[in-house]
Amino acid sequence: MSSQLEQFIPVLMLGAFAVIVTVGMLLLSVVLGRRGRNSRMKNIAYECGMIPIGPSNVRLSVKFYLVAMLFILFDIEVVFLYPWAVIYRELLAEPAMKNVALISMVSFLGILFAGYLYAVKKGAFDWKD
Amino acid sequence: MNVGLHHYLIVSAVLFSLGVFGVLLRRNLLNIYMSLEVMLNAANLALVAFSRFNRNLDGQVLVFFIITVAAAEVAVGLALIVALFRMRRSTYVEDLASMKH
Amino acid sequence: MKGLELIGLEIAVIAAGIAILLLDLWTAKEDKRRLGYAAALLVGVIFLASFAMLFEGRQEAFHGMYVLDEFALFFKRFFLIAALLVLLISVEFADRFESGVAEYYAITLFALAGMMFAASANDFTLLFVSIELVAVCFYVLVSFQRQRDRSLEAGVKYLITGALSGGFLVYGIALIYGTAGTLNFRELASLGPEVLESRLLLLGLLFVFVGLGFKIAVVPFQIWVPDVYQGAPVPTTAFLAAGSKGAGVVLLARLLYTGLRPIADRWGPVLVMLAMLTILYGGLCAIPQRNFRRLMGYSSIVNAGFILLALAAGTADGLAATLFYLAAYLYGVMGAFVVLCLARCPGQEDETCVLAGLHHRSPLLAATLTLAMVSLAGIPPAAGFFGKFQVFKAVIGQGAAFPYPAWALGVAVFGAVVSLYFYLNVVRTVFWSSTSESVAPIRISHATRWAVYLVIFAILWLGILPGAILNLAEYAVHSMGL
Question: Residue B101 falls within a domain, yes or no?
């Protein structure tokens, strides 16, 4: 038990070091920066930084949302594809499943393809507006 | 310490309760929706644990279907919430009371 | 593989849905509405094909997950008729959708496929998948009038409550699977009472019942009903009331009458309690209701109570009564919603003007609505009377074996009397209210006229000559081995 713990001592040391450095830097900046004194000059971007333009919470186009949704829907098919691929040889060996093994997956992908066709035709991937 | 079935079930029950309380107590539709997903995943965890414990794979098959259905539900649900937000500019449940007798 | 030919009907429905979806891409905008007739035609053909299905007795497929017997076929036909009528009235409704008319038909077909799978589900996996297929389709169908505030609000409400009940359902299934070690109803029944009576399994069962009770609109899982019925597009509401409820009932019936038959004395009393609560709640809330759609929502709750009461009997008679009651209910609901869909008044959200003076605008629709109300109220010679009669018969036939027989009968009689009041109130508004006589007469297209005739014919036929359907229901029940 103790030897196991000893192996972790370097990790602990690294963790402690990281915490000390970050907390120390933050504290130092507060102390040295004379916290509480705000002025217009102090709030603008520092030296070579850009003066910010526009609101800080930029809203993304709803197109991204559509793409994300379609990605999730088409991504999920792998959940079924993967196990099917793993046992495909065993399915072929089994006489009852021999003919169905391929057809069932092709029909599944066919339904998904119909959905894809629909999405393309409806312009879901047409980003130009 | 050995991790047994009980530990999985306790985690799953905690997750499920968190989900239920989230649905009941949260006021933002998106938070509610996330809580609903947590509930489904609590059930997934329980099913996988039981499947291992029972030594049959039915439970894991069901988990595949739950994942798929959850994805479909999220796609439809978020679309609905986005549409509602565009119309009402709000996703809070208090604003869902335009229908009374 | 054995099995593919058994799910032929479902494959046909899904293929029809995909075909409509793809046809839409190459159809001119003004013709899209008429795709609904194509969809209705396909559903009609599939309905006829269901009688040509060759099979002997009970057949199982996919490791006992899917079962095809007369019971399943009865419900499949029930859902097909409901979808047929819904598609016909949604063609009338189509001009009120901003866009995506063809999608509406396609999603209706997908929901129908889910219901048909539900009719055959003999396993918790298929139960979950079919119920969620129906639910996800309905999330879209309810909120289909995207530009209409109320439709969207109803959609979000249905979504949240539906997903919540779905979460409970899944967790319940997990608990049952954990204790029983199987997801199959048949295997569940063979486990013996000591496993079935274990506390964890009963808790899981309770959770599953939350999921199914939500679909059937049983108190206390009924909160969504009035708002969603009011906000959703009319064809969707009709499909919710008939189809979605039917799917919940068939799943519950299959689960209780095959998987949990050995512990009938455990679920019987619970069901009766909930049935009484449901009837009382629905009946009392319906009395002050002035909005017709909300009224139909509460009516749906009351009817859920009667269905539950019949199911609670736990006998073949009770199940047959459930089947007949649902069939009668289907035509009553469809009659009401066909009228609501056709008789609209522009610019008004409230439906009172639809009803007031309807007999001036269209005697046919006024007669249909009256007949539907009479049927739902349970007055002879309409179908609903015989449905209620069957339920009472099943309860009394059980005698003392039925849990709380006196209370149950009392509440049922109370529910019947109260519903008499609020349904006939609708009829009174149609004929004896003094407003809006100047509204133009209603034009009805040929296809919808036939739908209306079908509803009228079915209500009268089920009421006057119930023998045929009753035989069918009993035959269906026997096919389950009761």
Answer: no
Contact between chains at C1 and A117 (C-beta distance less than 8 A): no
Q: Report the CATH number at residue B19.
A: 1.10.287.3510
Residue among A97, A111, A117 whose CB faces C1 most closely = A97
B63 lies within 8 A of chain C by CB: no
Q: How many domains are there within chain B?
A: 1
Q: How far is A97 from chain C (nearest CA, A)?
A: 6
Contacts of C394 (CB under 8 A, 6+ apart): C310, C313, C315, C317, C318, C320, C321
Using the 8-state DSSP alphabet, how is residue C32 labeled? G
What's the whole-model pTM score?
A: 0.89
The chains in contact with chain A, meaning 3 or more Cβ pairs closer than 8 Å, are B, C
What are the phi and psi torsion angles at B92 (to 5°)? -100, 145
Task: Give me the interface pTM, i.e. the ipTM.
Answer: 0.95
From chain B, pick out residues whose CB is under 8 angstroms from the CB of A80.
Answer: 64, 68
d(CA C477, CA C462): 18
Nearest to A100 among C1, C22, C25 (CB): C1
Domain that holds residue B20: 5-95
pLDDT in tens, A81-122: 999 999 888 888 887 777 788 888 999 999 999 999 998 888
Nearest residue, CB atoms, C167 vs list B19, B65, B84? B19
- The domain limits of chain A are 2-43, 62-121
CB atoms within 10 A of CB A115: 16
To the nearest whole Å, the CA of A73 is away from the closest chain B CA by 6
Task: Choose from A92-96, C83-87, C218-222, C381-385 the range with maximum mean pLDDT.
Answer: C83-87
Q: What is the pLDDT of residue B3?
A: 76
DSSP per residue, C129-163: HHHHHHHHHHHHHHT--TTSHHHHHHHHHHHHHHH
- Which chain A residues in 2-31 lie under 8 Å from chain C, judged by CB atoms? none
pLDDT in tens, C263-303: 888 888 899 999 999 999 999 999 888 888 899 999 999 99
Our CA-based measurement puts residue B5 at a distance from the nearest CA of chain A, in whole angstroms, of 25
Find out whether C1 and A97 touch, Cβ atoms under 8 Å.
yes
B100 inside domain: no
Are C175 and C183 a contacting pair, CB within 8 Å? Answer: no
